[in-house]
Structure formats: C-alpha cells, structure tokens
Amino acid sequence: MTSSHTSKDRVHDLLRDIDLVIFDFDGVVADSEVISLSTLHRALDDFGINMPLSAVRETFLGTSMTTILKHVESFKPSCSTKQFADHWQAMLFEQLTRDLTPVPGVVALLDRLQATRTPYCIGSSSSFKRLGVALDAMTLRDRFAHVFSAEQVNRGKPAPDLFLHAAQQLGTDPTSCLVIEDSPFGVRAAKAAGMRCAGFVGGAHMAGIRDDHAATLKCAGADLILDSFAALASKPLARGQALGNSVPDEIEERPTR
Fold first, then answer.
1. Considering the chain, what is the average pLDDT of its residues?
2. Interval 70-120: pLDDT, tens
3. Would you say the C-alpha torsion 159, 165, 167, 173 has a positive or negative sign?
4. Is 162 found in the same domain as 106?
C-alpha cells in the first residue's frame, strides 16, 4: 500500500540518481522507539525526573545519549549521569534483547537495495554498543556492512556531521544521498548536509500521532513522508544479484573527533 502522504511517482522521483541510502536506526530499521522511550521514561522517574511520556518523546526522540545526559544534568544537577546511563541502559538492553523486532518492510527494502546494487548504511544517534545489541537481537548484523554512530563526530543531530561523515567514508556526494529519518532532529541534520530526506512514520511509536508527526517532519524539511516501506520496495527485483553485505563480528568503535 502506498503511503497516504505521498505518491509512488514522487517516491521513485526521489530515488532517481541516489548513490547511497542512509538509514536512521531506531524507529526506522529497528522498531525500538516504544521500548526506548518507555524505558527512558521509567529511568527518569526512578531518578526523580517526572515527565509525561509525550514530553519524553518530544524532547528525546532521535537524540544521542550525550544530549539526554545533558538534559538529565540540567533537570537534576545532583544526579550522577553515569549512574543514570548505566541504569537506563541495563533496562533498555534487557528489553531490546527480549522483544525487539525490525520495522515492518525494512528487510524487503534491504533486499531491493542489495538486488539493485544500491549502497546503504546506518547513521544513528545511538552508541555502537546499543546498535550491536539491537542488530544481534534482530539477527540483522550481517545485513549492514557500514554502521555509523554519533560517537564518531563532535556534534550529533540536528548538526549534519554524522551524515556528512557517512557520505565521506563511503565516497558519496551528499547531494546523491537519501536519508530515511523518523525524528525532526534527523531531518534537519539531513537537510543541513544537503541530502534528500524521507520522513518515516511507520514505526509502532507513531500509533495515534502519525499525522501530527508527519506534519512535524515536513516542517523540519522532509522532502516527502512515508508511513511504510511499501512504496520504496514495490518494484520487482531480479533475483541472484544480492551483494552479500557483511559486517565484522564486533562493531568497532572508532571515534573520528
């Protein structure tokens, strides 16, 4: 089913001359944002920082751990940010390992990209450790040869640094990149990098807010909105052309600051 927010023709126009697809991770590849936001909400409450879940989503969706910890420190200066990070990650990793699934349709899209020999990568605000836990939980580690984290750059989203780093590392002009993002911070980062951007609202965390969030992503600069991956993965694929992307057993943390 084609997105109610855009047409197949517009999707295919956006894909024309694309040399690299950059996926945000949480809420785009991994259907993890319900888990992430709910465990963050509980962790904040455990440390005496009371916020409605809607405020947690609005404030922290798409941000890095560094940004979250800065907020924690400003909300409660007496709080140990290390203890908070350890507490939240313990809850988060346990639930990710037990419950995490891919976003519906993303595996079919990866199949199409491989069959058409279109390079792709992850560009995420999450840490390499979290990305590794999540990829292993979904058994998708071997589908991503290239994984980039905000740990590798000085400024996270909405700054363009992470996406520009990914494009540079893969030898691709930013204007030939398509970013798929579910957060306004990520959309702004993509547009600041001079890249095309599809705002994605197909994750489970968008239930009940899909139209409002689509409008937010459009305001942030998204070129179009997708509420599923069906339009991107809709063309028939010639089988037997897969690239066979692989990744090492361990995702190496190699900051480039």
1. 86
2. 999 998 888 899 999 999 999 999 999 999 999 999 999 999 999 889 999
3. positive
4. yes
Contact 251, 131 (CB under 8 A): yes
Q: Say if residue 122 is in the same domain as residue 220.
A: yes
| pLDDT bucket at 251, cuts 50 / 70 / 90 | very low
Q: In this structure, is residue 145 part of a structural domain?
A: yes
* Domain that residue 122 falls in: 8-31+102-226
Side-chain half-sphere exposure of 168, counting CA atoms within 13 A: 10
For the ranges 29-38, 54-63, 181-190, 202-211, the lowest mean pLDDT is seen at 54-63
Cα angle 58, 102, 179; round to 5: 60
What is the number of structural domains in the chain?
Answer: 2
Q: What is the CATH number of the domain that holds 88?
A: 1.10.150
The pTM assigned to this predicted structure is 0.80
Q: Are residues 24 and 53 in the same domain?
A: no
Distances (CA, A) of 229 to 98, 102, 178, 235, 254: 25, 12, 14, 12, 31
User: Residue holding tokens 């084609």?
Assistant: 2
